[in-house]
Specification:
It is built from 39 helices and 33 strands. It is α+β, with helices and mostly antiparallel strands and 1218 residues long. Helix 20 packs parallel to helix 22. It is found in: Membrane.
Length: 1218
């Protein structure tokens, strides 16, 4: 692996003014901080990893784990998880009691089902955790170059890296641990780092090594290298680091500029050398994550409460039964000579009725246990696993580019997908694909770029349709946005230029510009051609990028600090100004159309004042071949306009107008300006600049800012650029559909406020005319506690005023957006202010939190989850999103091209944000309704079955006798009624997937909990109570005292029990058939097959030996089948149990139909095909009123255009009056 610095040596510190410059005096040796006391105990011996394996260090390995269990903890933790469920706890108690003499059933009949249910659930947990383990291993088994001694490097797995290891990380590799940068392929130890995985920022960060370690520039130099690092202990602070480096008997101070964090990526740098400081869970990114939580859905938690109710019912009827048994024992037992009251046990002793009652209580608790369905949990587990398989295999959520599918990493939360109220989303890599496209520009007051955004096209089409169909505006416009909103396919939205798709030029990454006035050198014929050439010359010079030759195409690729710079350079290249070379002091531009033939021009870079979020601008001072010195500046329009000279504002009004237009359609804008400098003026300024650069002390940054401000004045405006922050495919359509489904969307990003706002506009979370409430901290001269109190009071005042503003707003179309940065958010998340902040946020249509740390993302998620009490979903793609993904009720990871930390911590993973629409609106809706109906039906059938046992026991003097054979009771939940309910949970569809997407308002049935509220649950329980009464009393009344067999014999207990059980099977099976809206052949097989299975079992059981079948020997063939009364009772019981439910649903569908009932009727009668008018009307109603999203933005644009048109017509009318 030995390799020296093969890339051209560029001393970037000669160019940079702020972050990278080193003063000529060594700051590293000036008063290094004393690191003593708690929090600063870390000691790292460089190049001696073996030392840290022993006491007193014992630092952890670099192996990371996101699993819930390990080999040691699996059994106790998994058992604990299972017996957190109330039903399982009850059946454990029943299984123990079944070992006693008072048990009405054999011990095996109680223990076996419990072991099966718990074992299956634990196996599912083990399988899902194994998948997490395999994801962890993919990361742990990555390789990186590590010094093995004698100046030799070899590749080693990440998990084997130890503190103190020297490693060599190459371009585009992730850093496997937190490192101290020692040197890089650049001559002065500079390297570029992409931290998108940590803070969401796409622009590259520049890191620098200490000057003393620069000689460590190849493998051999580490042969005898040693040193000691003393620094802070592991902590989650990404942006701070305090430490000392002891080397060659000198001590040098360390700061964050020398630290390379795990999961950030090396970019634009061939390689770096570093020493490991923090490994594994000690690394800062892992310190920001939390342990994998054990999440349970709201339905499952509510199910526990239902179990409590049923358990209370069980205890109540058991008490009634035991009291009744005690009374019968005391009063009746002496009269029952055949029971031998003179020779009995405590179970039946008439002299001890209380004791007998207590023993009978235990018997009753076991006997009536069928009220609580033990198979409910295992059936739900099975259904959820299969539902997860359906999600995983959904081809509509398959991403062809990456080859990734959706993955349900845990199946416990399937139904929770259908109850989401608020989505908290990361920005970079989640909403955006980290790519900028040059779209439009304004040069010398003239707009260029003929493309139209989706908003412009949709608004124009919608208004055209409204104009042609004014009699029915809503219906005529519906057809317009049904397709563009969902996908924004190019075939549906044509560019304004009208160029057919098949004739368009090949797509150029970063360049989406079309205007023949500038293309192909045509700009040379424009009247302002000199200004145009200067405009693109600024784009090609004002940057810090590095050109790299693409050997395949022969063209140039650009490694830029930010995607914006890359887009500008591509645009300049395509329009004839190609940046092709950079040296230590010069930049070379190949100008294609300026002269008669392509000419390569050299521009000397004298100074570079880089961009920062505080400055909001970037400048370069360049000198051309003629010796002319110019300052070229690009930055935010608000900053550039205030720095213009009086003579430099010639194009200001037109440029402002164009910038407003670009902002309205969601484009990111920058203004461009320049200034001619005289030689003497520049020389004088440069002396001040060098003086500020070499200053030592805390005032250095302020002096540099002041000197830069001196020269960035009296600028001449030349134009503006508009780039599109490329959203991931389908993001606007997805957000629009989710908004129509009634979901609230928050954006939490580590990016700066301007970038987040631009993205908000691009994906229609923000729009022109939306009132923005910006919460920020004030500047104060106070110190310590006084400053904090002053800031908090100011923050509280801002929130109070904003809340009043929202409440007093009268315009029904008004929309508010809350935008807050990380510093302000830190105060808003404190206990005494977070309620007011949340109340304000809930009132706003959009919420965007900028500059937030990973910890703050998790805290905001917790605030929304706990403050609203509603289901939250967090979605992200980077390690900085792990905290909020784990904190939310549902965590969704984007399995993109970056690291897999978000995916490994998530509950569900998808390849792109747009698939969230189908995951929630389709699968979430289905899973919620399926699980809700399945649980309600389970309680219905078990109440209907279990109470008949109680009625019969009361009928027989509370004897503890079961009317049913043991095998009937064992098979009732396990086989005879399990498959229909499983088919309900797997295949039930109130509407198809296409209808779910066309009628997004159907999703609100989940958040409103229409199918699992207490009213519906109690109705199903009441239905079970009614059915149990009908089954028992109809059977008993008809059979009591009647001749049953041809020979005149009456029915014995076996006949009564089997007849009653047949009625139960038919009643509950017909009930589930009436519940289903959608039948497949599998459902037909399971539903009707269950009834057939009962008869087949009865036939086989009766044919078995009397030693096995006992009283049921040949009961079907010889007793039941020949008896007409058996079939009459079956028919009457089935009808009596299901006619009330049939009447109820008939009445509901006729007079009070739910949304899906209406759609089902329309589809059944094919009105969607035959009556398009009605179909479009119903579709237009199937949207929740929203103030965000593409549709809301189009509606707002139309309102603005109508207002302008109305004013214009009014003006013309006034002028026309004589």
């Amino acid at each position: 692996m030995a390799r020296g610095r093969v890339r051209e040596k560029l001393r970037w510190s000669k160019l940079y003014s702020f972050s990278c410059i080193r003063p000529t005096v060594q700051l590293e040796s000036e008063n290094p901080p004393s690191l003593q006391g708690p929090g600063y105990s870390r000691v790292v011996h460089c190049n001696q990893p073996h030392v840290h394996r022993r006491k007193p260090f014992r630092y952890p390995t670099n192996c990371i784990s996101t699993t819930k269990y390990n080999i040691i903890t699996f059994l106790p933790k998994a058992i604990f998880e299972q017996f957190r469920r109330v039903a399982n706890l009850y059946f454990l108690l029943a299984a123990v009691l079944s070992l006693t003499p008072v048990a009405p059933f054999s011990a095996m009949s109680m223990i076996a089902p419990l072991a099966f249910v718990v074992g299956l659930s634990m196996a599912k947990e083990a399988l899902e955790d194994w998948r997490r383990f395999m994801q962890d291993m993919k990361v742990n088994l990555r390789k990186v170059g590590v010094h093995k001694g004698a100046g030799q490097f070899s590749y080693k797995h990440w998990q084997k890296i130890r503190v103190g290891d020297i490693m060599k990380v190459e371009k585009d590799q992730f850093f496997p641990a937190d490192l101290l940068l020692l040197s890089s392929s650049y001559d002065d130890g500079i390297c570029y780092v992409e931290t998108m995985n940590l803070d969401g920022e796409t622009n590259l960060k520049v890191k620098r090594s200490l000057e003393v370690t620069l000689p460590l520039d190849d493998d051999e130099s580490f042969k005898d290298f040693t040193g000691t690092i003393r620094c802070e202990d592991p902590n989650p602070n990404l942006y701070t680091f305090v430490g000392n480096f002891e080397f060659d008997r000198q001590v040098y101070s360390l700061d964050p500029n020398q630290i390379l964090l795990r999961d950030s990526k090396l970019r634009n740098t061939a390689y770096v050398y570093g020493v490991v400081i923090f490994t594994g869970h000690d690394s800062k990114v892992m310190q920001n994550s939390t342990h994998s939580p054990s999440k349970r859905s709201r339905i499952e938690k509510k199910m526990d409460r239902i179990i409590y109710i049923l358990f209370s019912l069980l205890v109540m009827i058991s008490l009634i039964s035991s009291i009744g048994f005690a009374v019968m024992t005391k009063l009746g037992m002496p009269k029952w000579w055949y029971m031998r009251p003179d020779n009995t046990t405590n179970l039946y002793d008439p002299s001890k009725p209380t004791t007998a009652g207590i023993f009978h209580l235990i018997t009753a608790l076991i006997l009536y246990g069928y009220l609580i369905p033990i198979s409910l949990y295992v059936s739900i587990e099975l259904v959820k696993v299969l539902q997860a398989m359906f999600i995983n295999q959904d081809l509509q959520m398959y991403d062809e580019e990456s080859g990734n599918t959706a993955e349900a990493r845990t199946s416990n939360l399937n139904e929770e997908l259908g109850q989401v109220d608020t989505i908290l989303s990361d920005k970079t890599g989640t909403l955006t694909c980290n790519q900028m496209d040059f779209w439009k520009c304004s040069i010398a007051g003239v707009p260029y770029g003929m493309g139209s955004s989706e908003v412009e096209v949709a608004a124009a089409k919608k208004m055209a349709l409204e104009a042609s169909h004014t009699t029915d505006q809503q219906n005529s416009t519906e057809g317009l946005w049904q397709d563009p909103v969902s996908d924004f396919r190019p075939s549906e939205i044509e560019p304004e230029s009208g160029v057919p798709a098949e004739k368009e030029k090949p797509v150029i990454k970063g360049f989406n510009f079309e205007d023949e006035r500038l293309m192909h050198g045509n700009w040379t014929t424009e009247p302002n051609k000199d200004t145009i050439s200067l405009f693109f010359r600024i784009l090609s010079l004002c940057h810090t990028a590095i050109p790299e030759l693409n050997e395949e195409t022969g063209g140039w690729n650009y490694e830029a600090e930010s995607p914006d710079e890359g887009a500008f350079l591509v645009a300049a290249r395509e329009l004839g100004f190609e940046f092709c070379k950079r040296t230590q002091s010069s930049v070379f531009i190949r100008e294609k159309y300026t002269f008669d033939c392509p000419t390569e021009r050299e521009f000397k870079i004298l100074n570079l004042l880089e961009f920062s979020s505080k400055r909001k601008r970037m400048s370069v001072v360049v000198q051309d071949e003629s010796g002319q010195i110019n300052l070229f500046c690009k930055g935010a329009d608000s900053v550039i306009f205030e720095r213009l000279s009086k003579d430099g504002r010639f194009y200001e009004d037109d440029t402002r107008k164009h910038l407003t237009e670009y902002g309205e359609v969601g484009l990111r804008t920058l203004a461009l300006a320049y200034r001619n400098l005289g030689t003497s003026e520049y020389t004088s300024w440069n002396a001040e600049f060098i003086k500020a650069k070499t200053t030592i002390g805390p005032e250095r940054e302020e002096m540099l800012e002041q000197v830069a401000d001196m020269i960035e004045r009296d600028l001449i405006l030349i134009g503006a650029t508009a780039v599109e922050d490329k959203l991931q495919k389908g993001v606007p359509g997805c957000i629009d559909k989710l908004a129509q489904a009634g979901l609230k969307i928050w954006v939490l990003t580590g990016d700066k406020m301007e970038t987040a706002i631009n993205i908000g506009f691009a994906c229609s979370l923000l729009r022109q005319g939306m009132k923005q409430i910006c919460i920020s901290t004030m500047d104060t001269n106070l110190m310590g506690h006084d400053a904090k109190m002053a800031i908090k009071e100011n923050m509280l005042m801002q929130i109070t005023n904003a809340s009043q503003l929202v409440k007093l707003e009268k315009d029904p179309h008004a929309a508010f957006a809350l935008i807050i940065d990380g510093k302000a958010l830190a105060y808003c998340l404190e206990d005494d202010m977070k309620k007011q902040f949340l109340d304000l946020a809930i009132e706003c249509a959009s919420v965007i939190c900028c500059r937030v740390s990973p910890k703050q993302k998790a805290l905001v998620t917790r605030l929304v989850k706990e403050g609203t009490g509603k289901t939250t979903l967090a979605i992200g793609d980077g390690a900085n999103d792990v905290g909020m993904i784990q904190e939310a009720d549902i965590g969704v990871g984007i399995s993109g091209v970056e690291g897999m930390q978000a995916v490994m911590a998530s509950d569900f993973s998808i390849a792109q944000f747009r698939f969230l629409e189908r995951l929630l609106v389709v699968h979430g809706h289905w899973c919620y309704k399926r699980i809700a109906q399945m649980i309600c039906y389970f309680f219905y059938k078990n109440i209907a079955f279990g109470l008949t046992i109680f009625y019969f026991e009361a009928f027989t003097g509370f004897s503890g006798q079961s009317v049913y054979d043991d095998w009937y009771m064992l098979l009732f939940n396990v086989i005879l009624t399990s498959l229909p309910v499983i088919s309900l949970g797997l295949f039930e569809q109130d509407v198809s997937s296409d209808i779910c997407l066309q009628f997004p308002a159907l999703y609100q049935q989940g958040p409103k909990n229409l199918f699992f509220d207490w009213y519906r649950i109690l109705c199903w329980m009441g239905n079970g109570l009614y059915s149990s009464l009908a089954i028992f009393f109809l059977t008993i009344i008809i059979l009591y005292g009647q001749a049953f067999r041809a020979g005149g014999q009456t029915a014995d207990m076996a006949v009564v029990g089997t007849t009653m059980f047949t009625g139960i099977i038919w009643a509950v099976t017909m009930q589930i058939a009436l519940t289903m809206s959608h039948f497949t052949w599998i459902q037909h097989l399971f539903v009707w097959g269950s009834i057939a299975t009962w008869y087949l079992f009865l036939l086989g059981y009766g044919m078995s030996s009397p030693l096995i079948s006992h009283d049921d020997y040949r009961i079907l063939m010889e007793v039941l089948a020949p008896a007409p009364l058996y079939w009459i009772i079956t028919l009457l019981v089935t009808a009596a149990c299901n006619l009330p439910y049939l009447a109820h649903i008939s009445y509901q569908r006729t007079f009070h139909p739910m949304d899906h009932h209406v759609i089902q009727e329309i589809k059944y009668y094919r009105k969607d095909v035959e009556d398009q008018h009605m179909w479009k009307r119903e579709r237009s109603r199937a949207r929740q009123e929203t103030k965000i999203g593409f549709t809301a933005r189009v509606d707002a644009t139309i309102r603005q255009l109508r207002c302008k048109l109305h004013k214009k017509v009014s003006t013309l009318s006034v002028q026309a009056v004589p």
